[in-house]
Design brief:
mainly alpha, Potassium Channel Kv1.1, Chain A, four-stranded mixed beta sheet, 15 helices, about 5% strand, disordered C terminus
Length: about 350
């Protein structure tokens, strides 16, 4: 994956455009530094892109000056409270000029630039995409400064990642609790066992729970493959009863679970490569009929019994939590552990 350039799509903007951008996306002021500071590393430099001629608040971030529109930052509880504070008597308002900017300590200028990329979508001239690492930085600043809507938007984009370990690391760091159960379900349904690196990240307590849950989940899947549970009612009249779509899912599931699969691909993804449409658009040999391929999510959820699997996971974690209150049923990942950009990226096709 390291050699691939995978990006996340840009979501619809949640903000109205400032007046300078309403008629054109070329309203940025590429103002160079003053002669006193130009080229001198001791002086802050004005950002080449996000220093707006009609901006009304100046931020100093990691040695870079950004002149932006205050109303965008008033959507943050933190900045709204800061802007409401009167300056000391006889001093200018903080953020009113380059010489008296709002200083954001502990924030990198790259991360702040990514946040502004989200706030000013039309400044790019067209819809663009950024790496997953940039979305993590947007989520981090949105959480830090209490931009509730931006945080929600970043979470909705990052949740498309197919890697449950990535999502668990994000969930632990940014308290996205609703992701955890779904990630555990994916890990327990996966044909491949947990890797050593994954077990180290999960921690011994969570790994022990997931190992126990994985055995229950596999037993559940084998039982359904042998006729226990509901069967997807394939409407294709050409399907014989001995080789219906439901039978094909059962056969493929048993084969994958018994033989395993290369890498750490999720079970549903492996099944789709066997039963779904091929890359050239043709149906797979011995795959599902055209109707069932179009209803893929319904077919798989119904046949695998995804809701039953979620109940199994809830039961395992609740029982172990009742026996030991020392560790809560969370993923146990270190909060500062996040995947590198070249290792964890999300495809724009999601």
């Amino acid at each position: 994956m390291a050699d691939e350039s995978l990006h996340l799509p840009f979501p619809p903007s949640l903000h109205p455009l400032p007046p300078c951008m309403a008629a054109s996306s070329k309203g940025m002021s590429n103002v160079s530094c003053s002669s006193a500071s130009c080229g001198d590393p001791r002086w802050p430099r004005r950002h080449d892109k996000y220093y707006w001629a009609d901006g009304n608040v100046v931020f100093l971030v990691d040695g870079t000056l950004f002149k932006v529109h205050r109303y965008l930052f008033e959507q943050s509880e933190v900045f709204r409270a800061m802007f409401s504070l009167p300056p000391p008597k006889g001093t200018p308002v903080e953020g009113s000029s380059d010489s008296n900017p709002v200083r954001l300590e502990g924030v990198s200028n790259i991360a702040f630039e990514h946040l502004l990329w989200y706030m000013y979508p039309m400044s790019h001239g067209e819809m663009t995409a950024v790496p997953a690492d940039a979305w993590l930085q947007i989520l981090n600043l949105a959480t830090m400064f209490d931009f509730e809507r931006i945080r929600s938007s970043a979470i909705s984009v990052l949740c498309r990642c197919p890697d449950p370990m990535f999502k668990l690391s994000v969930a632990e760091r940014f308290h996205v609790d609703e992701w955890r159960l779904g990630c555990y379900v994916e890990l327990c349904m996966r044909p491949a066992f947990f890797t050593e690196a994954e077990m180290r990240q999960l921690g011994s307590e969570t790994t022990a729970r997931l190992v126990a849950a994985r055995e229950l989940v596999r037993s559940h899947l084998f039982r359904r493959a042998h006729g226990q549970g509901s069967r997807w009612p394939c409407p294709n009249p050409k399907d014989s009863k001995k080789n219906s779509c439901s039978e094909r899912v059962a056969h493929a599931t048993c084969e994958v679970l018994l033989k395993g699969a290369e890498g750490t691909s999720p079970l549903v993804q492996v099944l789709r490569s066997i039963l779904g449409q091929q890359p050239d658009g043709r149906p797979a040999e011995n795959g599902l009929c055209g109707y069932c391929v179009l209803q893929w999510n319904n077919v798989i959820d119904d046949w695998l019994g995804t809701e039953d699997i979620r109940k199994i996971l809830k039961g395992v974690f609740h029982r172990t939590a009742d026996r030991s209150r020392e560790t809560s049923p969370t993923c146990g990942l270190p909060s500062d552990t996040l995947p590198r950009e070249d290792e964890r990226q999300i495809t724009s096709a999601l």
